[in-house]
Design brief:
mainly alpha; 6 helices; globular; about 120 residues; single chain; about 0% strand; Putative membrane protein
Length: about 120
C-alpha cells in the first residue's frame, strides 16, 4: 500500500527547494519578473520565494495541508505569466535553452493538478 502523505511531502519539498533557490540564486528569477509589476524585480523574486517557503510549510503540516495545497495551486497559476515571459524572452536562444523555457509552460497544469490532489486527499 502506498503512503498517502507521499504526494504532499513531494509537493512540499519541490516548493521548499524552489523557494530556497529564489534566495540562493535570485538573478534568473529576476529576469522573468514581468516589467509591468511595480517596484524592483528582486523584491518580487524574494516575495515569491517567501510565498513558496510559506506554502511548502503549510503543505508539510497535516493540519494546514489542505489550505496549503490550495495556496500552492494558486501560486502555480500566479507564476504562469513569468513563465510565459521567459518563453518569449528566450525565443531566440539556442534550442536547449528554448526547450527549457517552452517546457515550463505545460508543466504548470500538472503542478496545479498535483496541488489540487493533495488538497483533496488532506484530512
Amino acid at each position: 500500500m502506498s503512503d498517502p502523505s507521499r504526494p504532499a511531502r513531494g509537493l512540499s519539498a519541490l516548493l521548499a527547494t524552489m523557494g530556497t533557490a529564489h534566495f540562493l540564486a535570485p538573478r534568473p528569477f529576476d529576469t522573468i519578473v514581468p516589467a509591468r509589476l511595480p517596484g524592483r524585480a528582486r523584491t518580487w523574486t524574494y516575495l515569491s520565494g517567501v510565498a513558496e517557503l510559506a506554502v511548502a510549510a503549510a503543505v508539510a503540516h497535516p493540519r494546514t495541508r489542505k489550505k496549503g495545497a490550495l495556496a500552492a495551486a494558486g501560486l502555480f497559476a500566479a507564476v504562469f505569466p513569468a513563465n510565459v515571459k521567459m518563453a518569449y524572452d528566450w525565443r531566440r536562444r539556442p534550442l536547449p535553452l528554448k526547450a527549457v523555457a517552452y517546457g515550463r509552460l505545460p508543466l504548470q497544469a500538472p503542478l496545479v493538478a498535483w496541488a489540487l490532489k493533495v488538497a483533496r486527499d488532506a484530512r
